[in-house]
Design brief:
With 303 residues, the chain is an alpha/beta fold. The chain contains 16 helices and twelve strands. The chain has three domains: 104 residues, Rossmann fold (3-Layer(aba) Sandwich); 97 residues, NadA-like (Rossmann fold, 3-Layer(aba) Sandwich), CATH 3.40.50.10800; 79 residues, NadA-like (Rossmann fold, 3-Layer(aba) Sandwich). Helices cover 45% and strands 16% of the residues. The strands form three sheets. It has a four-stranded parallel beta sheet with strand order 2-1-3-4, with helices on both faces. The protein has a four-stranded parallel beta sheet with strand order 6-5-7-8, with helices on both faces. The chain binds iron/sulfur cluster.
């Protein structure tokens, strides 16, 4: 393993590359990354890097986002087939149809969407900033896509807007049941429950803290609790354990995103060695998809 890590470091230097890894990828891949974070943190890192090459360890919409924000850079995905099933639950065509059905509504789209879908959005959001983005939107009616669970959470926190929900969901968070969470909480007396807003309303009702993966790190660090039930993807445990030594984190069964686990150290090495898995998008798609992303990264423009 040391050999692979050493070769990745040498290749990174040779290519002037930066490695970005999502909180859900395997721990050993997180360990060789320059930045580990959630979608928002990685979007910011992608927009600020001066490296020539960005290697994105995550799923394809993340690599696309990095490319859209850095059209002049080479963006590589070690596993270009690592697709997010939720992102594939929403197409540009279906958004156009929804706009016709709800004229005048603003379209707020989760960053967990494909590049073509972003071309039809007014502003992007992540789970970290979804409530703030919806609050800042001037339109009284919002089409929120594609995650209905996150959309429901936003509508509860922004009650003055009418929010039209999409029928998308993250299969991983959707599969975490309130029973699983209650059982884990009962078998770990004193445990604090943290839940990602992609979870169902039944799970969120049991949570002491609701937030993005980045929010969870901050909450767990600041909390006096020693044990946490964590309702999100299990890869998050690696980061939480590193940043909160002495604390325990337990996860519901089956909270594994297969797409996030495809990337390995070997595939990172292969990709840097052969410069494979390059993200290529038509210029007009990138130009249009950049608008909602830049609105999200700056102070959201009124839409
Ligand atoms: S955890 Fe859910 S939202 Fe994230 S990549 Fe996997 S399927 Fe998509």
């Amino acid at each position: 393993m040391e050999g692979t890590v050493g070769r990745i470091r040498a290749l990174k230097e040779k290519r002037n590359a930066v490695i970005l890894a999502h909180n859900y990828v395997a721990g050993d891949v997180q360990d060789i990354a320059d930045h580990v974070g959630d979608s928002l943190g990685l979007s910011v890192a992608a927009s600020e890097t001066d490296a020539d090459v960005i290697v994105f360890c995550g799923v394809t919409f993340m690599g696309e986002t990095a490319k859209i924000l850095n059209p002049g850079k080479t963006v590589l995905m070690p596993e270009p087939e690592a697709r997010c099933p939720m992102a594939d639950m929403c197409s540009a065509e279906s958004i156009r149809a929804a706009k016709l059905e709800h004229p005048g509504a603003a379209v707020i789209g989760y960053v967990n969407t494909n590049a073509e879908s972003k071309t039809e959005m007014d502003v992007c959001c992540t789970s970290s900033n979804a409530v703030g983005v919806a609050s800042a939107t001037e339109a009284g009616k919002i089409i929120f896509l594609p995650d209905a669970n996150l959309g429901r959470y936003v509508s509860e926190n922004v009650p003055d807007k009418e929010i039209v929900l999409w029928e998308g969901y993250c299969p991983v968070h959707q599969s975490i049941s309130p029973d699983d969470v209650s059982r884990l909480a009962a078998s770990n007396p004193g445990a604090v429950v943290m839940a990602h807003p992609e979870c169902t309303a039944g799970v969120l009702a049991l949570a002491d803290y609701i937030g993005s993966t980045e929010g969870m790190v901050g909450f767990a660090k600041a909390s006096d609790a020693k044990t946490f039930v964590v309702a999100t993807e299990v890869g998050m445990g690696h980061r939480l354990e590193l940043e909160c030594p002495g604390k325990d984190f337990v996860f519901p069964p089956n909270s594994v995103c297969e797409a996030m686990k495809i990337t390995t150290l070997e595939s990172v090495e292969k990709c840097l060695e052969g410069m494979t898995g390059e993200i290529r998008l038509p210029k007009d798609v990138m130009d249009r998809a950049r608008v909602p992303l830049e609105r999200m990264l700056g102070t959201p423009n009124p839409v």
